[in-house]
Amino acid sequence: MGLTKISQGYVWVKNRWHPKANRGYVKRAILVLEQKLGRELTPEEMSHHIDGNRMNDDPANLEVTTRSEHMSIHKPVIKRWDKNKKHRTPCSVTVKRRPSTEATQ
Question: Do residues 55 and 39 make contact, with C-beta atoms less than 8 angstroms apart?
Fold first, then answer.
């Protein structure tokens, strides 16, 4: 492996020709996971640190996820008001509704 640096909590390795390189560096987790799998990750795949520690690039701590799977792991469930069911339901966006200010006549 080439020169390394730490950025955003990840270990980055100098490898300007890697398809997932960013300014000539690629995350070490990607390289370790690709070596574990014996192939490159597809553009839809990404690495996930099972224990949440971005510095722990042990092959046993890494798994392949799609971008949407990865987001569902890390993104908290946001609730919205469902006017038909009169309770909060899981949703990907927050919708705030103001109480009606219409005066009764």
Answer: no
pTM of the model: 0.67
Structure tokens at 12: 């980055």
| Domain coverage including residue 48 | 4-74
| Alpha-carbon gap, residue 46 to 17, rounded angstroms | 18
Number of domains, the chain: 1
Three-state SS at 97: coil
> What is the rounded distance in angstroms from the CA atom of residue 10 to the CA atom of residue 12?
6
Report how far residue 59's alpha carbon sits from residue 63's, in angstroms, rounded to the nearest whole number. 8
Quick: pLDDT tens for 75-102.
Answer: 765 555 555 555 554 444 444 445 555 5
Look at residue 37 and tell me if it is in a domain. Answer: yes
Please report whether residue 22 resides in a domain.
yes
Burial, 12: exposed, middle or buried (Cβ in 10 Å; 0-12, 13-18, 19+)?
buried
> How far is 40 from 46, CA to CA, in rounded Å?
10
